[in-house]
Write a structure and sequence with these properties.
The protein is mainly alpha-helical. It is built from 2 helices and no strands. The longest helix is centred in the last third of the chain and has 46 residues, at about 60-105.
């Protein structure tokens, strides 16, 4: 005497809520990342060059200083790129929500 009950949940298609980025999104992200990455690497190379000149470092000192500075610049560039993508996605999502609110309100 076993009773079988159907405990499976109905299959419901979930609607995608993410924002699909367009051409403008990629142009903005790539240009921002290139601009600020150029600043990061210019600063890094400038500091490296200044220390080499001021301290009269040889090749061992130059390599040692580069080993300390270059990974930090690479991390800053990577972090910049990830934050730029996140920021632009959040901006696009908020813009889409604002447009949806504007179109949902009746005129008058």
């Amino acid at each position: 005497m076993s009773s079988s009950s159907n405990t499976t949940a109905p299959v419901v298609a979930t609607r995608r809520t993410g924002v699909r980025p367009g051409f403008t999104f990629y142009v903005v992200v790539i240009s921002a990342v290139l601009l600020f990455s150029a600043e990061i690497w210019t600063l890094t190379l400038g500091v490296l060059w200044a220390f080499i000149g001021i301290l009269s470092l040889g090749s061992a000192g130059t390599i040692s200083l580069a080993v300390l500075l270059v990974p930090g610049a690479a991390w800053a560039t990577w972090r910049l790129a990830t934050l730029a993508i996140r920021g632009e996605l959040a901006l696009a999502a908020s813009e889409r929500e604002r447009l949806a609110e504007d179109t949902a309100q009746p005129a008058g």
